[in-house]
Amino acid sequence: MKIEKVETFFVSRFLVVKVTTEDGIEGIGESCYWSYPKAAEATIHGFRDELIGMDADNIEHIWSYLWRYNSAFRGNSIGGAISAIDMALWDIKGKRLKEPIWNLLGGKVRNKVRAIAQGISGNSPDEFAKGAKKVLDEGFSALKFTPMAKEWAQMNYTKMIGFAVESVRAVRETVGWEFDIGVEIHRNMQPHEAIAFCEEVAPLRPYFIEDPIVPDSVIAMGEVSKKMRLPLAVGERNMGIWEFREYAQIVKPAFFKPDIAVAGGITGVKKIATIAEAHHIKICPHNFQGPIATAACIALGISSPSWDVQESVQEDIPPRRDMTDEIIKLENGWYTPSEKPGLGLNFNNDAPNKHPFDPAKVPPPIRDDGSVALQ
For the chain, which ranges sit under pLDDT 50? Predict the structure, then answer.
């Protein structure tokens, strides 16, 4: 089971790694350091010589070895690289043993995973409400959206908070009270603004408030958490069990949002889910990338008691749909796990030709005075 080859591919801005063993078994993984995927790719290439010849079965050893390689530097290029490699190794193990990954992780704690829809946008409360109605009609029972106007950085304090509250109100009036609404501030507010917003939006009973401020400081996030009096969701930019341990002990959120393609892969997020379970924290993973990462999330969601809702993106259209031979089944707002070995899907080798590399370019918004706004 020695590793013979480690390859990387870009499908649009999705970075895929393929690991092949000496006996020809291929495993695939995905990285989500989407802002700088070339850096994650370079890190994977830096690991390649070390990986070749290692026993693919020893996933835990390889995870620890790579995490401590070159004096244990930190950063999302490293986390994104290790995550993709780790997924591929689990895929290999499942294929070799002819078992789905969720069965290797301890079997089922649930039969299906509830999806939380994403992707609605608008520049008025009515536009958000129309998007919410579409999600409701599609069978979802939960939605996450960002109730910020496109020109939020040019709004004054009163108008920005008022617009956000009215947008949540419009969505609540559309979907009713037997529906969960996750509110993502998308790191667009200062601490005092986030606290004021949470006071006003609380009667609308949001399921969680995600990333109310930029995650620059665990201490700052903890100060907001103490004052906001609503369930807090954090962690999509974080990696490794140690950062999530600090969140559990200092911030005490209601939800962790690890991204399986940057936080440490299946091995790392399984440990993060255990930390969450020990602190009565739910897992709602960050997931806007491709079907490989989604399949890895569902494998953990089926086998992890602390898993709650799974972020859902539209994977039945290109470029995501062209990445793999199939995708995890999503029907009426629920994911059903694959019964096939490994992740349950295979990489489409022609996908990189159909969708060449498309780098992200998301400059921060600029305020009227010329200064950089938060994002």
Answer: none
